[in-house]
Write a structure and sequence with these properties.
The complex is a heterodimer of chains A (469) and B (233). With 469 residues, chain A is an alpha+beta fold. Chain A has helices at residues 2-39, 43-52, 66-75, 105-113, 150-154, 156-195, 211-265, 271-301, 314-328, 353-369, 401-410, 425-436; strands spanning 54-56, 62-64, 78-82, 88-91, 115-116, 119-126, 129-134, 310-313, 335-338, 348-351, 376-384, 387-394, 440-445, 451-458. In chain A, the strands form 4 sheets. Chain A has a 5-stranded antiparallel sheet with strand order 4-3-7-6-5. In chain A, strands 9-11-12-14-13 form a 5-stranded mixed sheet. In chain A, a hairpin with a 5-residue loop joins strand 3 (78-82) and strand 4. In chain B, helix 1 links the parallel strand 1 and strand 2 (35-39). Helix content of chain B is 40%, strand content 22%. Chain B is elongated, with a radius of gyration of 19 Å. By secondary structure, chain B is α/β, with parallel strands linked by helices. Classes of the chains: A alpha+beta (469), B alpha/beta (233). Chain A binds chain B through residues 243, 246-248, 250-251, 253-259, 261-262, 265, 281, 284-285, 288, 292, 295, 313, 315-316, 319-320, 322-323, 326-329, 338-340, 342, 345-346, 354, 464-469, and chain B through 17, 19-20, 23-24, 26-27, 30, 88-92, 108-115, 118, 175-181, 190, 192-195, 222-226.
C-alpha cells in the first residue's frame, strides 16, 4: 500500500506541474495574440489616420487624400465628420443610406461608445470636430461596458493568487475522485501481488475496471500452486522411494548381520573364519548406518522430518549414546572413553534428542569405520561461553591437511549436491542436524593424533535448577 | 547372564520372512531358550496366542494378512503378554505407535543378535520377576520380594532408594545403566545434581552386596557413564 501512496503523490505532483506549465503557456500565447492584435493596425488608429488624411480646402470643402481612401477601401469602412452641433459636415462616398446625417448629443455618445445602425464605430479627432469611422458590421465586436471596480483592479495580484488556488483545489478534488475510483479497482490486485510471495493462496475477485489483470493474477497464483504441489509431490515421492528402498533392504540385511554375528561368536570355528564373519558383520553395520543416514538425510533435506526441540541435558544425552554403544558391543576393538569433566553434570540445550543422538552416533561410527584396525574414541561435553561443545575424537590415523580442508568445505553442502564425495554422508548429516539446531560442526586433527569433530550448539536460556536440591 | 527359569518361557516369533524366523529362532536357541514357536501370518499368530499361550511375542509390523499394530490390538484384548516389535519400519511415528499400543520394546531391523537377546532378557526379567524372587550375585542373593539381601545366611534389609536402584540395575542386568537413568529411576524427572547422592547410595549398596566393597565384582563402575550389575546365571 505504501507504493500506492507514493504513486499518488508522484502523479499529483506531475499533474500540478503540468497545470502550472499549461497556465504559463496559455498566458504566453494570450500575450502573443494580444501583442499581435495591438501591433496590427487597430480600428482606432485607422480612424485617426483617416482623420489625418482629410484635408479642408480654402472653400470649406473636404478632400480625402489617397492615404485615407486606401485605409477605407482596405477595411471596407465608411467615415463621417460630425461638427459640434451634431451635423455631418463630410461623409465618404460609400456611406450607406441608413446612416443618419444629424446626431443629438445622446446619439453621438452612443455612436462613439458603440454602434451606428449596427456598424461598429471608431473615432478620431479632427480639430473641434469628430471623425467617425464605420466598419463593416461583422468586422469588430465592441466591449461597451468595460468598467471594473477599483478595488478589483487594486487587489488584482491577490485575486489572481486566490483564483489559482481555487483552481488547484478543484483540480485536486477532481483528481482525488478519479484516483479513488482507480484505486478501488487496483487495490485488491496490488494486495494480491503483494501476498503472492507469501504463498500462492491468492484469489482476487475478477470484476471491475481491471478484471483482466485479476484474471491473470489468479492464473499466476493457480500456476504457482500447481508448481508447488508438483514439487512437493516429487519431493515426497523421492523421500518415499528412499524410505521404501531402505525398508526393503533391512530384512535381508538383518539376516546377513545376524548370521555373520553368530558365526563370529561360534567358538567351534577357526579364528580366521570368525574374523571374516566379523568383517561381514561390521560391514553390514556400515550398510545399516548408511541406510539410516540416507533416509534421515532425505527427510531433513525435504523438511519431512519435523524437529521437535525440548530441553535436553547434553551430558546425559551423550552419556546415553556412549552407553548404548558399549552395551551393544562391549568387547570390540574400539574402546570408548568418557572424558567429560566430572564437575560438569548438566549442560542444557534445546534439542531434538533423537536427532542429536543420531548425530553423535554417526561421529562414533565414523571414527570406527575410518580406523578398521581399532582405536580409542573419546566423548566429551564442555561449556564454552554460551555454547555447548560435544566432541568425539579418536587416536586413529586421522586425516591429512588437504582432506581436512575438503571436508570443511563440503560439510556445508546439501547431500544432493555432494556428487563424488566419498565419505561424506555421515558427516554431512551431522552438519545438517547441527544446523537444524542453530549450531555448527568443527572438524580438526585431534590432540592425540587422530581426527575429531565437535558439534557446537547454543546453550538453553533457562538455567538448570540449583544443584543443592 | 539370563536366569535359567526364564529360558523355559514360551516365545512366539511372528514374521512373514521364514528365513528371518529361522535365524531369530536360532539366535534364541543358541542363547538357551527352549520353547520357541514361529508364525508367518497374523492369523497363525493369533491362533497360537489363544492356544499355546506364549509368554513373550516378537512381532513384525508387515504381515501378509494384516499389520502387527492391529494384531497387537487384538492380542491386547485378551492377553497381557510382553511384546517386542522387530520390524523394518524405522520411522518415529511407527515406533511411537507400537510403543503406544502397549509394546514393551521396539527394535528396527537390521539388528545385532546380541541386542535382541539383551532386550528380550530385560523384558522377561521385568515381567516375570515375581516368579523368581531370588537373584544370584557373586557374593549374595537379592530378594526383591522382601527387599533384602541375603549374604552369608544373614538377611540385610534394603532402603527404598537402594531397592529402586538395584531394580533399575537388575532390569538391565549385564548392561551399563547411565547415571542419568539411575537418578531418574530414584528421584524422578529432571534429576540434576544428584550425582553425589547416587555415589553414596551405590557405596552403601556395595557394602551390602559385595564381598569386598572396595573391589566390587557385581556392581561395576563405568567411569563417568554409569554402573553395571552382573548377575550369576
Amino acid at each position: 500500500m505504501k507504493s500506492i501512496l507514493k504513486l499518488i503523490r508522484r502523479f499529483f505532483l506531475i499533474l500540478i506541474l503540468s497545470i502550472v506549465l499549461i497556465l504559463f503557456l496559455n498566458l504566453i500565447l494570450f500575450f502573443l495574440m494580444f501583442y499581435h492584435q495591438s501591433s496590427s493596425r487597430s480600428p482606432w488608429k485607422a480612424a485617426e489616420m483617416v482623420a489625418g488624411s482629410l484635408l479642408q480646402a480654402e472653400d470649406g470643402t473636404y478632400e480625402l487624400q489617397d492615404e485615407g481612401k486606401t485605409v477605407l477601401e482596405q477595411s471596407g469602412a465608411w467615415a463621417i465628420l460630425v461638427d459640434a452641433d451634431g451635423s455631418v459636415k463630410w461623409s465618404s462616398s460609400n456611406l450607406p443610406s441608413e446612416i443618419p446625417l444629424h446626431y443629438t448629443l445622446a446619439e453621438l455618445s452612443w455612436a462613439i461608445r458603440g454602434y451606428i445602425e449596427d456598424y461598429p464605430t471608431t473615432v478620431g479627432e479632427y480639430g473641434d470636430d469628430l471623425l467617425i469611422m464605420g466598419h463593416p458590421k461583422t468586422a469588430y465586436w465592441k466591449a461597451m461596458w468595460n468598467t471594473f471596480d477599483y478595488d478589483m483592479i487594486a487587489n488584482l495580484p491577490q485575486t489572481v493568487v486566490i483564483f489559482l488556488l481555487f483552481n488547484l483545489v478543484i483540480v485536486f478534488l477532481i483528481y482525488l475522485f478519479a484516483v479513488s475510483g482507480v484505486l478501488r479497482s487496483v487495490k485488491p490486485i496490488i494486495r494480491g501481488i503483494e501476498a503472492l510471495p507469501e504463498g500462492p493462496e491468492v484469489y482476487v475477485k475478477e470484476k471491475g475496471l481491471l478484471s483482466s489483470l485479476a484474471v491473470s493474477l489468479n492464473r499466476t497464483a493457480e500456476k504457482l500452486r500447481m508448481q508447488e504441489y508438483d514439487l512437493k509431490k516429487k519431493e515426497t515421492a523421492r523421500a518415499n522411494w528412499i524410505a521404501g528402498v531402505s525398508h526393503d533392504i533391512r530384512t535381508p540385511l538383518s539376516m546377513v548381520m545376524g548370521y555373520a554375528s553368530q558365526l563370529e561368536d561360534n567358538k567351534s570355528l577357526a579364528e580366521s573364519e570368525r574374523k571374516k564373519a566379523g568383517v561381514i558383520r561390521f560391514q553390514s553395520m556400515r550398510i545399516k548406518n548408511l541406510i539410516n543416514d540416507l533416509n534421515l538425510s532425505s527427510k531433513l533435506e525435504y523438511n519431512a522430518q519435523p524437529i521437535q526441540r525440548t530441553e535436553q541435558n547434553a551430558v546425559s544425552l551423550l552419556r546415553k549414546v556412549v552407553v548404548d554403544f558399549l552395551n551393544v558391543d562391549p568387547d570390540n576393538k574400539y574402546s570408548l572413553v568418557w572424558t567429560t569433566d566430572e564437575s560438569l553434570t548438566s549442560c542444557l540445550i534445546q534439542a531434538d534428542a533423537n536427532l542429536l543422538q543420531r548425530a553423535v552416533s554417526n561421529l562414533i561410527v565414523n571414527a570406527q569405520v575410518h580406523n578398521p584396525d581399532g582405536c580409542t574414541i573419546s566423548a566429551k561435553v564442555c561449556k564454552e561461553g554460551d555454547m555447548c561443545r560435544i566432541t568425539i575424537s579418536d587416536d586413529g590415523k586421522g586425516v591429512s591437511d588437504e582432506q581436512l580442508a575438503t571436508l570443511r568445505t563440503s560439510s556445508g553442502r546439501s547431500p544432493s549436491k555432494l556428487g563424488e564425495q566419498q565419505h561424506g554422508l555421515g558427516l554431512l548429516i551431522v552438519g545438517q542436524i547441527a544446523a537444524a539446531h542453530d549450531g555448527r560442526i568443527e572438524m580438526d586433527h585431534s590432540p592425540v593424533g587422530g581426527f575429531q569433530v565437535s558439534i557446537i550448539l547454543p546453550l538453553s536460556e533457562k538455567r538448570p535448577p540449583s544443584e543443592s536440591k | 547372564m539370563n536366569v535359567p527359569y526364564l529360558k523355559n518361557k514360551r516365545i512366539l516369533l511372528v514374521d512373514d520372512e521364514s528365513a528371518l524366523l529361522d535365524m531369530t529362532a536360532g539366535i534364541l536357541e543358541a542363547e538357551g531358550y527352549r520353547q520357541i514357536k514361529k508364525a508367518k501370518t497374523a492369523k497363525e499368530a493369533l491362533a497360537a496366542c489363544r492356544e499355546w499361550r506364549p509368554e513373550f511375542v516378537v512381532l513384525d509390523v508387515m504381515l501378509p494378512d494384516g499389520d502387527g499394530f492391529s494384531l497387537l490390538e487384538q492380542l491386547r484384548a485378551f492377553s497381557d503378554v510382553p511384546v517386542l516389535f522387530l520390524t523394518a519400519r524405522g520411522e518415529e511415528e511407527d515406533r511411537f505407535r507400537g510403543l503406544g499400543l502397549g509394546a514393551d520394546d521396539y527394535i528396527v531391523k537390521p539388528f545385532l543378535p546380541k541386542e535382541l537377546i539383551l532386550r528380550i532378557g530385560a523384558i522377561l526379567r521385568r515381567c516375570y520377576k515375581n516368579e523368581q524372587p531370588l537373584v544370584q550375585l557373586a557374593a549374595c542373593q537379592i530378594d526383591f520380594e522382601k527387599a533384602e539381601v541375603i549374604k552369608n545366611e544373614k538377611s540385610i534389609p534394603l532402603t527404598a532408594k537402594e531397592f529402586e536402584l538395584l531394580q533399575a540395575l537388575y532390569r538391565n542386568a549385564g548392561k551399563i545403566v547411565t547415571i542419568d537413568m539411575l537418578c531418574e529411576a530414584v528421584w524422578g524427572e529432571n534429576p540434576f545434581g544428584y550425582e553425589n547422592s547416587l555415589m553414596a547410595h551405590i557405596r552403601r549398596i556395595r557394602e551390602k552386596i559385595e564381598e569386598n566393597p572396595s573391589k566390587p565384582v557385581s556392581l561395576i563402575t563405568v567411569k563417568g557413564l554409569g554402573y553395571k550389575l552382573l548377575v550369576e546365571g
